[in-house]
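User: Hi! I'm working on a homework problem where we have to compare a predicted structure to a textbook description. Could you give me the structure for the chain below?
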Amino acid sequence: MTYEVFINYRTGDAEKIAALIERDLSHRFGNEHVFRASKSIPPGAAYPRELINAVRRSSVVLVVVGENWSRRPELHDENDWVRREILEAFTCGIEVIPVLDGRKTERLNPADLPEALKRLADVQSVRLDLHDLQSGLTRIGDLLAAKLPRLKAVDRSIRQEPKDGSVSNSVGEVQGTAIQSRDITGDVGTVIKGNQGPVHTGKGDLYHHSPHVSGTGATYIAGGNQGGIRHDFGGARRKEEDES
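Assistant: Happy to help. Predicted structure tokens:
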């Protein structure tokens, strides 16, 4: 399986930051594009083979560096997996980016590193500050999306443009029930905005808290009136009497 991002970290040194980075990148780009050993290696699998193969098939290796990372004696052990993963990335020509955990973690100093890893100190790093965690995670995601076209193509943070002919709607404050239907095509019908009273959009009469009296002689509708009122009483018979 090919991963775009391999997360290199040491258990007991910034492993929580490594988990946060992996979770955020997986949410943004998909689990299948981000490798972190404790999540990505299935039970029963031979982890040495899985680790080396994952590094070789990745495009970028993020090296999570904690405050005491460079002082750990394990870095001088040729069998140390953190060391082996970084050196494998160098051998394969894979880009390596140090991620510094917090404000207190200083940039790597070549004097603190074994000879095989000194070149890591010359690589530009990024800092992830817990006091501004989300913006830092977003910055790392943006950096990777800019470097890797495959990640950019699956970036869930990019708002997709609506297709031609599609219909969308938005609902503001809702005090009752709002129902979203499936796609709408053809005549949408009547759209009503800002209504404060009864609304009639079809055929027939509408009565709302008001009496209605009708008959041969009169028609009366109670309610507010903003225009004129006209009523006729015995219209046809009155006209005949006047003519006589």
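For your comparison, note the following. DSSP finds seven helices and seven strands in the chain. The mean pLDDT is 79. Good luck with the assignment!
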